[in-house]
Amino acid sequence: MSDEKPTRRDILRPLHLLGIALGCGIFAAVVTLVSTGAFTARVNNAIASGTYDGLTPIALGLVVGGGAFIVTLLFLAMLILVVDPADVAKTVDRPVLFDPETSDEPDSDKPDRTSSS
Length: 117
Known about the structure:
Elements: H1 8-11, H2 14-35, H3 41-49, H4 57-81
C-alpha cells in the first residue's frame, strides 16, 4: 500500500457526490422500469394502441429517478455540513468513528485484553 493518505477534501469532492447521486437515481429509474413492466409486450402494445391509462412506465421511471437523484444529493449535502471545516485539510489516517486516542488516560480505565474468557 502507498503511504499517501487522502485528505477529507479528496474524499468529499463534489463530482464524486454527484456521481453517487446519479448512480442512485439511475438505479431507482431502472428498478421502476422493471417493476412497472416497461419491457413487456403487453405494456408496450397498450401504450402503442393508446389504451394505457396513467403515466407511462418511462415517464414514471424518469420521475422516480429524478426524485431519487435530488433526495440523495440533498442527503449527501446535509452530511457534508456535519464535517468541521478545520478538519478538511487534515489527513485521514484512522477510522473516523473510533474514539480519539489520548495518552493521558490511566491504564486502569482501559479494558484488560490479557484475560481470556
